[in-house]
Amino acid sequence: MSSKRVVTVKYDAKGEHFEIIVDPEYALEFKLGKPISLDKVLITDTVFRDSKRGLRASEIALKRVFGTTDHRKAAEIILRNAEIPLTSEQRRRLIEDKKKQIIDWISRNCIDARTKAPLPPQRIELALNNVDVAIDPFKGVDEQINDVLKALQKVIPIKVAVATLEVTVGPEHGQRVKSALARMGRILKEQYDESGNLILQLEVPAGLQDTVIGKVNEMTHGESEVKLLGVST
């Protein structure tokens, strides 16, 4: 059930300031990609430049920033791009959910470096509670797992099982794919074939194999090849 509270979402772009008034629970569900109707999210379709004073955004400002004078369409763009103010309970719940996802990832992809045994979720959770690492509820696990692992290595002998992949993409996609993959793992080797295709050998946590394949396919529209060369610990 929706809360009865309302919050103001603020958004700045191209020197203009905009505000919309939303239901905080439905706005959060919308932000998280759930199929929520805008009618439930928006308290009013109006986009303001100052909601407290009831000052509507001008059509000139809307057109310049959003490419439309339709307040409802502009409000949807704001929702997708602005930061939603969270209640303390919402933030706590989101962080706990993300923490569970991170623990699950670690338990599936990491081992005890001394015993080579799997790490039980309970041990990982206890260690997480004893290290100084910020968990971002809106970032994916893949985007913050490296920071979490660095923190955990201070209190437990943790090691990630790694996969070595060979990625081949056309010359038109080479630099973009290389930059993206460098953020996901370690590039071991780089070369070009006779056709100018870029061939990369990449080392990533074993659990990121599907993520790498999906990312490469997305960036190249399926015009790529990813081979698994091996998995090691």
UniProtKB/TrEMBL annotation:
GO BP, sorted A to Z: cytosolic ribosome assembly
Entries under Gene3D superfamilies matching the protein: 3.30.70.240, Ribosome maturation protein SBDS, N-terminal domain, SBDS protein C-terminal domain, subdomain 1
Stretches assigned to coiled coil: none
SUPFAM superfamilies reported in the protein's UniProt record: EF-G C-terminal domain-like (SSF54980), FYSH domain (SSF89895), Hypothetical protein AF0491, middle domain (SSF109728)
InterPro entries, alphabetized: EFG_III/V (IPR035647), Ribosome_mat_SBDS_N_sf (IPR036786), Sdo1/SBDS (IPR002140), Sdo1/SBDS-like (IPR039100), SDO1/SBDS_C (IPR046928), SDO1/SBDS_central (IPR018978), Sdo1/SBDS_central_sf (IPR037188), SDO1/SBDS_N (IPR019783)
Span of domain Ribosome maturation protein SDO1/SBDS N-terminal: 6-92
Residue ranges constituting the Ribosome maturation protein SDO1/SBDS C-terminal domain according to the UniProt record: 164-230
Superkingdom classification of source: Archaea
Location of the Ribosome maturation protein SDO1/SBDS central domain: 100-161
Family: Belongs to the SDO1/SBDS family.
Protein name: Shwachman-Bodian-Diamond syndrome protein
